[in-house]
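hiii, so i know i said id send this last week but things got crazy w the move. better late than never?? heres the sequnce for the chain we talked about at the cafe, plus the structure i predicted for it. fair warning i was half asleep when i ran it
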Amino acid sequence: MKKILVLVMVALTTATSSFAKSPVKYEILYKLNNENTFNSVARYLRANQEQKDQLMYVFYRTEKKLRKALENKDLIAAEKVVKYNLENSKYILNDDQYKKYEAVLNVSVYNNNDEYVADNTTK
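okay and structure toks below
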């Protein structure tokens, strides 16, 4: 279990370092579509094949919608995309998996910061 957690954290370190260079908090959502990152997160969540397929689709749609929102500089739409990602991920994953997913997002995006992307508001 520790090896998987370390692997996930290493895979997401690039997302965190990218975030440090840019104030855009949505960077991690782009990284979820990366094959290595996706596989690491799926292994950490212990997602079955059906969940992986559904998450892959949600992450793809999230990236596409987010790019459009940010190109238009529409932060309200970007926040809706984050909510879309969290709500759909919650529907796909069981409670334990979703808590782990929230933790991965929060740790990856906001190292030592008090603001969270996933804050249990979708419950």
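btw DSSP finds six helices and no strands in the chain. thought thatd interest u
miss u guys!!
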